[in-house]
TrEMBL record:
Pfam families: Phage_TAC_7. It comes from the Bacteria. This is Phage tail assembly protein. It comes from Gluconacetobacter azotocaptans.
Amino acid sequence: MTLDLSDEYVLSAMAAPDDEAAPDEPGLIVLDESIEWKGTRYTELRLREPLVAEVLFSTRVMGARATRSTAYAAQLDLVARVAKWPAAAIDRLPVRALDRAVAYVTDFEENARRPADEDPDLSSDLRLVLSPPVQAVGQDHGDMALHEPTVAQRKAYIARTARETPEAFVQGEIDLVAAVSGWPMAAVLKMPIGKFAQAADYLTGFFTRGPRTGPNYRAS
């Protein structure tokens, strides 16, 4: 017996289910249960790559030195800034949802930074292209040209980081990137943290002490 089924109906069996056809949105964390805070219901976290300014704000939470407690507080602050959630609502998140959020917003910088055991890039210049470009001071900034810093720029970096706090080191990198690139400070602060980390690692790589050589060096 032949059932009276249309071609469209039987062919629809080959279509992927809706939840497979549309992959999860990167940075979207949907909560199993909503969170209520001051009359607002929060059902999801919508995350993106942090900007340099947001990371700088978060490092201030750590104060004079990074400890397990202050580093965790800084991570919560960064998630709250990117998601545009109040801090009190962040505190009500389930631990696993918060851990996913922290991993998402911090991976951009961690994946862009040079591994500690990797030699720095000592190329004479480096060009970074930002797409879309950063919009600041009424202009688009999408092409960053970098080169080896000068002694004066290194001295300024050392002075800026002299306090040796997490905030001071980030501020030192920001000043250095702005000085060498010629970008206005507002544009540097609006950079995605991943691109900024590449720029900062390239420039500070020239400050890394290499093998000892010269007339005062004795081979062991």
